Amino acid sequence: MEERIQKILARAGFGSRRACEEFIAAGRVRVNGQVATLGDKADSQRDKILLDGKPVQAAEPFVYIALHKPRGVLSAVTTPDPRPTVLDLVDVTERVYPVGRLDADSEGLILLTNDGDLANRLTHPRYGHEKEYKVLVARRPDEEQLAAWRRGVVLEDGFHTTPANIKVDGSAGKGAWLRVVMREGRKRQIRETGTQLGLPVVKIIRVRIGSLRLGDLKPREWRYLTPEEITALKGPSGKTQLRPTKGALKPRQSGRRPK
Questions:
Q1: Which pTM does this prediction carry?
Q2: Which residues are catalytic?
């Protein structure tokens, strides 16, 4: 059956559909010897599909992993930066990719998967999935600062942030912990917003992506998602090819394989 090439690539674990569209637009994909273009379709069982000259293999079973990314680790697949990436922390044979990003100085929940459809669903703005963060700021905010953050602020480059749900979650010396819930995820947005409002950000921990929660995972620990968590992320009608999730609720350290 023919389907759009970006969908075939995403299902084979090469990233979200948007990322796979970029591969096609860059001329990196060939079908039966011809350079593919956006909108082209192919039959993964019949046609010869190459990405960067390498055959696109049949789709692997989908894998879904929740990881507590520590500070100093990059949310990237490949990078010239010598620091470790999130892929260095999980020991699985399947090719997985981070869904959404956290900057190197932030920590918390990262979802790793080879399900391109789910990655697209969780990152595309039109779906509006919430992301929740615990944010430590160096000063205790006043009501005016909180109200401005809730309304949205204009950053130095002119970008206007969308409204966010902000509440004070406790004090910490001269500073305070905030709960920040937002539906957009511009790079370093929380830090830049805090700076703009006179609330320097000391620490960021992401604790939720959509319905998926960090829970009691400690930095560097990871676990497989349960079938119930996957269903919740995909919606009630989501159909998925599940990997066995024996011991799914048990946190795992980097370098330890599931048994």
A1: 0.72
A2: 103
